[in-house]
Amino acid sequence: MTVFVTGGAGFIGSALVRDLVSKGDQTVVTIDKLTYAGSLENLTEISSSNHHSFEQVDICDAAAISALFAKYRPTTVYHLAAESHVDRSIDGPADFIQTNLVGTFVMLQSALEYWRDLPEKAKNDFRFLHVSTDEVYGELGPTGQFSEESPYEPSSPYSASKAGSDHLARAWQRTYGLPVLVTNCSNNYGPYQFPEKLLPVVILNALAGREIPVYGTGENVRDWLYVHDHSTALQAVIDKGRIGETYMVGGRAEQTNIYMVRTICRILDRKFPGKAPHEDLIRFVTDRPGHDARYAVDCSKIEAELGWRQSVSLEEGLEKTVSWYLDNLDWVSKVGDGVEQERRGLEGKSA
After folding, report:
1. Which terminus of the chain has fewer Cβ atoms in its 10 Å neighbourhood, N or C?
2. Quick check: is 134 catalytic?
C-alpha cells in the first residue's frame, strides 16, 4: 500500500507521517511545497526509513500532482496541505484562496482522473480524506457544540477558504462518486507546532523573558486536541469511516486561551523556579478582527461509529508539549528563525 499525505512536512501532517511510517506496513509519500510552516526538520526521525518518500510539489500544480499519482499509484490520500494561520489570512488572504481552494480542487480533480482508471477492486479500496477545521462553523454561544450537521458560518478569510474546500470535497463525492471523507477538527497542539502559534509563542517568549501577548481578555474558548490523537483519528476514518460522511474530531478539553497560557507559565515555573512567576510576562493586546469567542465540537459520532477515543488528557498533553520544546530548542532555531513572537492579526499588534 502507498498513501499520500499532502502538507506532510507541516505540524499535523508530519505527526501523521511519523505515525504511519512507524507502523512499517505501507509506503508514505509526503507531498509538501515547503512554505514557511513546512520543514523537513519535522521528518528527520524517519528520514532514513525505506517506507517514506518526499516530493517537494505545490498542490496547485496540476501537472506535477497528476504525475505523482501516475508514479506512485496510491491507495489513500490524506489531504492536509493548507494555509492555516488565521492572523496571516487577515493580513494576506490571497495565498489562502490559492492553496486552500485551488489546491484542493487540483487534488480532487487529479485523484478523480486517477481513480476512474483503476481496476474495480482498487477503485473500491481507494479513499480520499479531506482534513478541515471546526472554524468553518463560525462562533458558538456560551453553550452547545458543533456537530456534523452544523451550518457553515466562517468568520475569517482562513475559515472561509477552508469552508469552500470542504464543499468542493463533498461535491466531488456526490457528483463524481470519488470516495471522499471529511473531518473537521478542533484546536491542535503538541510537538513540532510552528513557533507563531499561541502555545509555542507562550513557551518561547516565557523562556526568553519576553512579554507574552494574549488577544483581548484571553477568554476565547477552544477545544484542545493533542496532535497525536488527531493522527489516530484520521487513520480510524480511513480504516473504518463511511464514504461521503463527515466526522468531527475533538479533544473534549474546552478551555480559555488565558487558562492555557497560565497553565504553561506554571509548568515553566516548576521547571525554572528562578525565573518565576512567568505569568508576570502576560500582556493583553488588541483583539484581532472577527475573533470567534468559542468553538467546541461534539465528537460522539467518531467515538460511537469508529471506536476512536482521545488518549492524552489536556494536563498530560501540556506537560508533554512544554517538555518537547525545552528539549528541542535547536528545532525552534532552525524552523522559526525570524518568526515574530507577537500576535499578528490586522490591528492586533501590541499597543
Report:
1. C
2. yes
